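Q: Here's a chain of 171 amino acids. Please give me its 3D structure as tokens.
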Amino acid sequence: DLGMSDVQAGNTFAVWSLAYGILIFFAGSICDVIGIKLSLLIGFVLCVASRFIFGFVIDYTIVVFIGLPLLSMGLPLMIPIKSAAIKQYTTKKSRGLAFAIFYAIMNFGAFIAGLVLDKLITVIRSQGVQTQTEQVIKKGHDVTKYMINIYGDIHVSSYQCIFIFTFFVTL
């Protein structure tokens, strides 16, 4: 959607991953200072804001320089902090079960996400309009950009639909 080449997208992902990796080291310190609840709330708000940008904005500068940094700051305040919260708010006797439930829910969510996203992509491709003159297949995967109309004149791509879906799931 942003018109990046494979190399540009790879470099962008590498920088984002590096930033996320560095920021995850500071998440524990931040959590110690502001507390678990506030850390989770700030992380949630940052993640929702980034997913909103990914779903509703197609400007390269905003997505790359605002959306990706928000996500790289939000995720470290969510993922490891949840594990710390489980450890802090459970007894030694119930901790094993609490972590088992936590990981079962995460795995179930990943399973459901795969099913839902596959169905969503199928619907978008059947209802959407290709924006390129011919279909593009790379390594057996259809990467053609499809557009779907929402409320008349509003057009969103198949990739935006996925981010809009994740935005609403996050909420």
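Q: Can you summarize the key feature?
A: The first strand starts at residue 129 and ends at 130.
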